[in-house]
Write a structure and sequence with these properties.
Number of domains: 2
CATH topology of the largest domain: Rossmann fold
CATH class of the largest domain: Alpha Beta
Radius of gyration: 18 Å
Strand content: 5-15%
Number of strands: 5
Largest sheet: 5 strands, parallel
Structural class: alpha/beta
Bound molecules: cobalamin
Distance between the termini: 45 Å
Order of helices and strands: HHHHEHEHEHEEH
């Protein structure tokens, strides 16, 4: 399956030069070189959202294509993913907005779903806007998700879905969340979610967000809305 990546904006231009070297380093398992190239991108003032989508995500999608066509081993794919997760952790202290909004989101990958990098990136976008973003991890059991929402009383919840086989788990999670929290904004993202929009129940508080730019716009709009809770 060929996977779509967001169109690259002019602001991400330096990444076009860095990308081939980054992909090579990732496939070679060369963490230090990946770090150095990431630092070069930041020094060239590439925005974090561009870095995430047009370097990290683009490279991991390519890794997926290489794996699908048996050109790389599962081990190489695992190592590449671990390197990107390390890069995200390394950037984390830099991305947290010093001014906190008092808002909180809980994000989980749906039950059965082992892909977690995209959901972690979505959490980071919330942190950049001053939200407290809590990632429950891959394969979040639906009942544990609901229990956590009850305990943490977030302002929104996010669900991530990569593999289309997990659509049923997504719909189950949505139904469980709606039973307990009829007013809670629910954000859905991930490659698998692109095919499920039509299967979702009609609900103005459910938002399918195609990429991190759409998420960024959503957060800005939400934070400006008079009904938004929290705040300094
Ligand atoms: C790494 C990887 C794995 C790792 C994941 C480890 C980890 N720590 O996450 C492991 C080895 C576990 C794995 C397993 C499998 N994988 Co896999 N995997 C990948 C790979 C190479 C990279 C995933 C990734 O991190 N992408 C980068 C992130 C940043 O992209 P993203 O997830 O799309 O996230 C972005 C947006 O979608 C969005 N987003 C994501 N979540 C959310 C949530 C919210 C709330 C919001 C707002 C936005 C948002 O924001 C992100 C940034 O833009 C992909 C290739 C690919 N195309 O992604 C295959 C891929 C996803 N895997 C695939 C498959 C088939 C599998 C397996 C079924 C393989 C198998 N036979 O076992 C299993 C399924 C396991 C399971 N039960 O889930 C297929 C899925 C095909 C499909 N459509 O169903 C892919 C596409 C590979 C391919 N080309 O065929 N995989």
């Amino acid at each position: 399956m060929a996977t779509a990546i967001p169109e690259q904006p002019a602001s991400a231009a330096p990444l076009a030069t860095l990308y081939p070297a980054f992909l090579d380093a990732l496939l070679a398992g060369d963490r230090r070189h990946c770090e150095a190239l990431t630092d070069q991108a930041l020094a060239a003032r590439v925005a974090i959202l561009d870095l995430y989508q047009h370097l990290f995500q683009r490279a991991l999608y390519q890794v997926g294509d290489e794996w699908q066509h048996n050109r790389i081993s599962v081990g190489v794919e695992h190592l590449a993913t671990a390197i990107v997760e390390g890069l995200l952790n390394r950037l984390y202290p830099q991305i947290i907005a010093p001014r906190r909004s008092g808002r909180r989101i809980v994000i989980g990958s749906v039950e059965g779903e082992l892909h977690q990098v995209g959901a972690k990136m979505a959490c980071d976008v919330f942190e950049m806007h001053g939200w407290e973003a809590l990632y429950l991890g891959a394969d979040t059991p639906t009942d544990e998700l609901v229990r956590t929402l009850r305990a943490l009383t977030p302002d929104a919840v996010g669900l991530s879905l990569s593999v289309t086989d997990h659509v049923g788990a997504l719909l189950t999670a949505i139904a469980a969340i709606r039973t307990g929290f009829p007013e809670l904004p629910l954000l859905i993202g991930g490659q698998g979610s692109r095919q499920v929009e039509t299967a979702l129940p009609p609900d103005p508080l459910i938002h399918c967000l195609a990429d991190l730019d759409a998420l960024d716009r959503f957060i800005l709009q939400h934070d400006q809305s008079p009904t938004a809770t929290g705040g300094d």
